[in-house]
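README, section 4: Worked example with a bound small molecule

Sections 1 through 3 covered apo chains. Here we extend the same pipeline to holo records, where the ligand is supplied as SMILES alongside the sequence. The molecule in this example is zinc ion. Nothing else about the input changes; the structure line simply encodes the ligand pose together with the chain.
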Amino acid sequence: MRVVVVVIAALMTLGLAAFGVVAAQKAAGPASLVALVAHVISPTQSTSAPSPAATPAASYPVQTRIVQNPVIQVSDTAMLPSAPSGAAIVLAQNATASALPTPAPSTAAAATGSATAAKAIPSCSNPDALGLSRVVEIDTTGGPAFGTEHFKQYDFLRDKEIVFTFDDGPWPENTPMVLRALTDNCTKATFFEIGEHATWRPDLSKTLADAGMTVGSHTWSHKDLARNPYAKDIEQAKQEIEMGVSAVHMAVGGPIAPFFRFPDLQQPADLIAYLGTRNIATFSTDIDSFDFKIHKPDDVIKSVLTKLQKNGKGIILMHDFQHATAEAMPELLHQLKLAGYKVVHMVPKGPVTTISKYDDMVHAQDKFSSSNNTRPESSVVKTISE
Ligand SMILES: [Zn+2]
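The generated complex, written as structure tokens:
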């Protein structure tokens, strides 16, 4: 009898312990756990965002882990179980801290302190907006190169994903038009600016950076570095690159990306090697819109859509310098949304460093500010009647 009592007591203890485990799991939030599991298994189903060409879940790597070094995903609309349709809504850092009970792998990126507002997907009140699907962080250590037109290794985009890149700005009227179309659509892009242009209109560069766009550089004065005198004189070529970096950095008045694009995509090997020593990433392109040869906005749209349809995804090269492109933007973004494309924004892991020698050269170019104009404008010009 005593033996039976002991056995029953032991069984009851085991039962209670098992119940305790279940209860603890329930207390931890079963809905969240289920949502998290569903998210990992099938990220396309964890959001109600439209997926016209639903990519098979199997072709997705598990969300938010390193997709392919040196590209790390830091934000994804699919991270929230109930992402509203189309519009991007995730603050990745906040999502992992408050909405998801178990730390998602991207928390590691946030924990490095590298996460900033530019790395988050902001809320969007426009249901028709193209929005933002993912933010990827690029570790530029050693100067990786992107753009499958020339570099095949880091092809980090999934089917139907696009990255916008704009060259040759900043430029009055056109750059603000491009920016307005992007912000109206709650989406983001990378701008490769010409240093000289940035010194002419630093306010435009700063506005882009303030709006969360990624700003990189595109030389000082858009010289083809594969030609002489640059081809035979690497010091001159370095100066053309570095003055561009310094000028754009100066215009923004804060950190800019260690992202660089060669003019005309002429990319001498020794200069790519040099950029490697500077930890600056080179960006070629996947899809060249050739918008600089196009004068009608409709033809810019056609060019981008046709090439995208053929390629399925890609880093797109356009020019905020070009008026037809600026005019095409609202309709182009609308068409891209209708066709089910999703925008990926690239952000750098860390900012570029400038070299003081080239900072000084840019200052020296700015002949007007080194003139007598040292007093603040308000003490020089006063409104005396109005
Ligand atoms: Zn260019």
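What to look for in the output: The domain at 66-364 is CATH 3.20.20.370 (TIM Barrel). Residues 2-27 form the longest helix (26 residues).

Section 5 describes how to batch many such records.
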